[in-house]
Sequence to fold (168 residues):
Amino acid sequence: MRLTGVHGYGEILGHLNADGSYKKSAFEIFFENILNGKDIDVWGNQEIKRDHIYIKDVLSAIERSIKSPSAKGIYNIASGMGYSQLEEARVLVKIFGDENKTHVNLSPEKSGLVRGYIYSIDKAKKELGWEPKFTDLVDLYSDYKKEWISKKYHNYHVISDSDKPLTL
Fold:
């Protein structure tokens, strides 16, 4: 299975170094700004869109592939949809924040994403009978919020206290 960017509570969103230091992703920065009631600055060209998949959809795809007697080859497991960072930031504010406190500011002159991607999931649909359920960002982040609030899943990576994300 070829996975695109997987979202789901408990994940490490940025880059974890061997010494425990951590570099936050744009998603993590957006999320922390929302939790702190700060504005979000979205950089770059917003015509660039990326495909993300929710962990629950990944698990359903794995289950389908295990149960399929004819599954073979490579399957793209993704949402088949693309969203810009601006679209994601606006939905994150809607779900996790207060639209009167946290504003999303666009800075197209600053360097942002340089490439996008949207995976074709036709083979997985046809051969596995699988389709993702969380292709709408509001649905995805609403469920993510439920998991985040429950604190059922834990992140067991060692991260230095000074770098630890607020979202853990």
Q: What stands out?
A: Residues 2-150 form a domain with the Rossmann fold fold (CATH 3.40.50.720). The chain has one domain: 2-150. The longest helix spans residues 137-150.
